[in-house]
Amino acid sequence: MSQDFTHKKLELYKQKIREIPNTSFNADQKKLALEILEKADPHNLEAIFSLLAKRIEVGFVFDIAPEVQQDAICLLKHNKELSFTPALCQQQHAMIFGENYDALKNLLVLYRGKVDCIYIDPPYNTESTKQDGNDYKSEQNSSGKFGYRDKFMRTGWLNMLNERLKLAKDLLSDRGVIFISIDDSEQAYLKVLCDEIFGEGNFVANLVWQKKKGGSQDSQDFAKEHEYILCYSKGTWEIYEQTQRHEEKDFNKTIDGKRAKILKLEKWGNHSLRTDRPTLYYPIKDPNGQDFYPIAPSGAEGCWRKKPENLDPEHIFWQEDSKGRLTPYEVLYFEEVQGKDKIIKTRTIFTDCGTTTDATKEIQAIFGTKAFATPKPTSLILKLLKIATSPNSLVLDFYAGSGTTGQALMELNREDGGNRRCILVTNTENNIARGVMYERIYRLCYGKGTKGESFAWADKNEPFSDQGWEVFEGQTHHLKIDDYETGERLKEVAIKAFKTLEPSCDLGDELNIYYTLSCLNPQKQEPKPPKGP
Ligand SMILES: C[S@@+](CC[C@H](N)C(=O)[O-])C[C@H]1O[C@@H](n2cnc3c(N)ncnc32)[C@H](O)[C@@H]1O
């Protein structure tokens, strides 16, 4: 380990200790912690700091994260053969095959603060929740076991997301937003982690997605038919999707010769009693000039929907209600509200965004088989993109799996003529990146497979022949900090790939590949059990 690197690290940790508020760690404690760090064996510096930090942190406490590998960097390598730019190409997207931690570090060089929407669908940690020491009912509860990037213990799983979400946050633009799919096993834990990373004030919603219907066949008690999508913003967040408050078809009356819709003036539902809203209890004149007070659905004294100053007497229409009682209604004239009544609201419960069965059918229509086990339906991601992106947004999915986000984005660009750009990252496990994500996107853009195969989707849909994709692979290079020559050569390699990904980028001299692109330590491979007898 180079002395310079150790020194920098030590100074960084000392600085972190000094920055801890005195309310959490008093001056004497800080002094002691600094002494311990000063005397620590350089090889154990990170572990010792983590141990000290554990004594201090009041929020989440993690197992020690894998260290950054000190002699390896990951660079993106452009794969020309797989990249494609159709003749009518309007927009060039990118796919990255490889470990997303490394990909995110590379993307930060180009897109810090520039990504408008991130959607991720990480491993849910479902099976391991039961198997790796988190199931308190389990007899083999081995809480000391620490699995990382495989079957995760909860702390390992949170740690894995913690590292990536912190990088993701730095990628988000000021108005950016992140959506994270998750189910009941870890939702609560992920929510707390995200509160820490993005800030509780930036929590937007915990969306509920109905992922299947008729789940009662396989349930003992409650039919679990939903999952969640946690949503956090970076700062100022604005919903793009607008919903019409009044649908045109509801203007089915003619009042004073004009198309109109009427709405009961007496409040119904929650808070419809005089005692709930005393200021909304006041008389209006009925058609005979008599005072008329609001009545709640229960028959008790009620309240109006509007304050007196907001109620235009010219817009009151009297008619008998369903019980034959003469009742006042507010009149809305179509020509008065048309185009002015957009509201920026959407529901938090998604019941009509496709199911997991729909997602599997989509995969079958493209591959002819269930080529991928856990896809999301395109309509779910389409809905999120409609809510959170403008026609020029940059969108990232770093657990892209079969590439559903890519399909949803191309569909939305087609629907509204947008120029959204998409970056998909997925690892190479089980040939997912090349065999599923890439193949799916290629098929959607060309209407045929990479080997000329035909498939059902293309019989009913026009291929996205105006969308091109550059393909990159993460490549690990060994680089010692004092190997200046190799460092300069690799820097050129890095810049070349960055310029292909973002031709307009200007990296200047400030790119320090060693610090910016250092990898995580590779996962230690468990020795494989010997093959059968
Ligand atoms: C649940 S799937 C995502 C499915 C996707 N939403 C879809 O509709 O197809 C998660 C994907 O993330 C990939 N993945 C898991 N860990 C990763 C990592 N560290 N880096 C990159 N990809 C990873 C897995 O290979 C898997 O394909």
Q: For the CA atoms, what is the radius of gyration?
A: 29 Å
Number of strands: 19
Report the top-level CATH class of the largest domain: Alpha Beta
Q: How do the strands of the widest beta sheet line up side by side?
A: 15-5-6-4-3-16-17-2-18-1-19
Query: How many domains comprise the coordinates?
Result: 3
Q: Tell the overall outline.
A: globular
Beta content comes to 15-25%
Describe this structure in words.
The chain contains 15 helices and 19 strands. The two termini are 45 Å apart. A hairpin with a 2-residue loop joins strand 8 and strand 9. The strands form 4 sheets. The protein has an 11-stranded mixed β-sheet, with helices on both faces. It has a 4-stranded antiparallel β-sheet with strand order 8-9-13-12. A two-stranded antiparallel ribbon has the order 7-14. It is globular and about 95 Å long. By secondary structure, the protein is α/β, with parallel strands linked by helices. The chain folds into 3 domains: 56 residues; 299 residues, Rossmann fold (3-Layer(aba) Sandwich), CATH 3.40.50; 95 residues, no CATH class. Helix 1 packs antiparallel against helix 2, helix 4 packs parallel to helix 6 and helix 6 runs parallel beside helix 7. The structure holds S-adenosylmethionine (SAM).
